[in-house]
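Quick start: read one record
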Amino acid sequence: MDLSFLFQADSPVFTWVVLPLLIFLARISDQTIGTMRLIFLSKGHKLLAPFLGFFEVIIWLIAVSQIMKHLDNVLCYIAYGGGFAMGNYIGMVIEEKLSLGNVLIRIIPRKDTSELIRYLRENNYGVTSVNAEGSKGKVDIIFTIIKRKDIDNVVGIINQFNPNAFYTIEDVKAINEGIFKKPRKTTIFDSLSFGIKKNK
């Protein structure tokens, strides 16, 4: 079956279906790359960000040039806006999956922190605690800088030892030295644990 008519510039199918679809896909691509570029830039990846920026602007120029050639085609505008929105979403999902960078977790527990601090240190998390004065008296503020991929694990530890603790999570652009949890190699015994966590 000959489908060449779909790509003929004067074809109604090309004008109202194929072209908006191509613009939509191009906009998804360039906006996804753009979102990733900004994320990498904020994380301090100075070489990767410009590399992505080159491809981002090339794809954007192609999409915009097609818009300018078909100013009377409202579907092109819709495709352009839709691709922009979807590209933002996809870029954020990809960044979340990659779990790039480090974060600072600031914890203000509601009860004794000794067990929480001990457990974090035993699991190779760097912990700094300071005494402070809260609205209801003296409190200990705990700081730990961790890999972003470890957030769920650390939050689970906080909830285990100090339910209802107040904590904040902030991105950290750069760090120098410090203690970070080293990934443990999985063994055959992990598959036999049936998801049961050992209490320490």
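The first strand starts at residue 102 and ends at 108.
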